[in-house]
Write a structure and sequence with these properties.
The relative contact order is 0.11. A hairpin with a 3-residue loop joins strand 9 and strand 10. The protein is globular. The mean pLDDT is about 95. Strands 5-4-3-2-1-6-8-7 form an 8-stranded mixed β-sheet, sandwiched between helices. The protein folds into 2 domains: about 160 residues, ATPase, nucleotide binding domain (Nucleotidyltransferase, domain 5), CATH 3.30.420.40; about 190 residues, Nucleotidyltransferase, domain 5 (2-Layer Sandwich), CATH 3.30.420. Helix content is about 40%, strand content about 20%. With about 425 residues, it is an alpha/beta fold. The chain binds adenosine-5'-diphosphate. The site of adenosine-5'-diphosphate has 13 residues, from helix 11 and helix 13.
Length: about 425
């Protein structure tokens, strides 16, 4: 099957075309035919395309909305120019998988989209006003362009965390807010944590139920997940993706009374303070320089800027805090797993996160750690380590494509 994976953001569209089926999944023979990112939708859009074995392409074109962007992508895929010979007509796109940020309490796994599901996704807009509307635009554009006959599947960022017990997902505020409005921890990055846990069990050759690990997704957004018996038991992101770890521009955990205090002090609104916590905080806010970890590490090497070091150290210490907390909640685990842009590519950050964790049995092997970059998978602990540390590159799009195939062909998204 040719599956188009769509991740529609507010002014961006990420997409991949993946050829896969139940057999290909078994042998990891899925093929990625193209992946691309479109930025600045609504104006002069920037289109980046990558195909295996070909040079990257970058082009500019006016795209007025998500529908125009998706139309552009589909036209290009079926054109001579793309060189994707097996997809020559729109009918050769067999299914579409959408990343949907918020599934609320309703969606515990990936589902085929029909009118009722679409309504239910609309119902979650209140919980994710920044994200779900864009995802919905993607779904509607596909229906218009490919027709209602092409199956579409929604894969939710929150779904993996649906297994959290109430002791993990509730906030210690009056219970009535949970009942009335669904105020609770939902957790995000679920597709990434789930994919990494899946890869871990395949690599180790163990059953799903035997997976007891702490996964660390460290990218622009960052979150940790305590996985018990293969299921999410706790996670660092909460009601929104603002809680938890220090991120590129997000503060992570802060004392909530800061919001009113700062709003009063600065004569602004709570919404303004929330925007500050979301867009001007984290690595950017502390360093005063950039949200990009690679740039911070380079700056630290060259100029030994105190606030740059502070930002990086706070980032690492917060990750360490969650590792400790989650290992305690799980009653111990077999491994911690690094993933995401930083987790997959920065031996330096991994080493700094693990520094001082020898007491709990984690010893990093410097050579192995240095070797795990650029998409490499492996362990980075030394042979005497009681706790393993892995680097496993995430691949949310692949999981979305596989869920799509499984839902469309068997009705069940769970991998065996
Ligand atoms: P997102 O959460 O948006 O998917 P990514 O997973 O792509 O983000 O992660 C982006 C982050 O990864 C950026 O902060 C980037 O600087 C960082 N990163 C990528 N490569 C490296 C590297 N070699 N060293 C340190 N940080 C890196």
């Amino acid at each position: 099957m040719h599956v188009l994976v769509v991740n529609a953001g507010s002014s961006t569209l990420k997409f991949q075309l993946i050829a896969t089926d139940l057999e290909a999944m078994e042998t990891d023979a899925d093929r990625r035919l193209v992946h691309g990112v479109i930025e600045r939708i609504g104006g002069h859009a920037l289109v980046r395309l990558r195909q295996p074995g070909k040079a990257r392409q970058l082009r500019e074109t006016p795209l007025k909305d998500h529908r125009a962007a998706i139309e552009y992508v589909l036209r290009w895929i079926v054109s001579e120019e793309s060189g994707i010979d097996e997809v020559r007509a729109l009918g050769d796109v067999h299914a579409v998988g959408h990343r949907v940020v918020h599934g609320g309490q309703r969606f515990r796994q990936s589902v085929r989209i029909d009118a009722e599901v679409l309504h239910a996704i609309e119902d979650q807009v209140e919980l994710a006003p920044l994200h779900n509307p864009a995802n919905l635009k993607g779904i509607r554009a596909i229906t218009e362009l490919l027709g209602a006959g092409v199956p579409q599947v929604a894969v939710f960022d929150t779904a993996f965390h649906a297994t959290m017990p109430d002791t993990s997902f509730l906030y210690a505020i009056p219970y009535s807010y949970y009942r009335r409005y669904g105020v609770r921890r939902y957790g995000f990055h679920g597709t990434s944590h789930r994919y990494v846990a899946f890869r871990y069990r395949k690599l180790r050759g163990i059953a799903r139920e035997a997976v007891n690990i702490v996964t660390l997704h460290l990218g622009n957004g960052c979150s940790a997940c305590a996985i018990k018996g293969g299921n999410s038991f706790d996670t660092s992101m909460g009601f929104t993706p603002l809680e938890g770890l220090v991120m590129g521009t997000r503060a992570g955990d802060v004392d909530p009374s800061l919001v009113t205090w700062l709003a009063e002090k600065e004569g602004t609104s709570a919404a303004d303070v929330e925007r500050m916590l979301t867009r001007q905080s984290g690595l950017l806010g502390v360093s005063g320089l950039t949200s990009d970890m690679r740039e911070l590490l380079a700056e630290e090497r060259e100029h030994q800027d105190r606030r740059v070091t502070l930002a990086i150290d706070m980032f690492c210490q917060r990750v360490r805090r969650y590792i400790g907390a989650f290992l305690a909640e799980l009653g111990g685990a077999d491994a911690i797993v690094f993933t995401g842009g930083i987790g997959e590519n920065s031996p330096e950050i991994r080493a700094r996160v693990c520094q001082g964790l020898e007491w709990l049995g984690l010893r990093v092997d410097p050579l192995r750690n240095e070797a795990c970059i650029d998409g490499a998978t492996g362990t980075i602990n030394d042979k005497d380590s009681r706790l393993a540390a892995w680097v496993i590159p995430t691949d949310e799009e692949l999981l979305i494509a596989r869920d799509t195939v499984r839902v469309v062909t068997t009705g069940d998204p769970r991998a065996r």
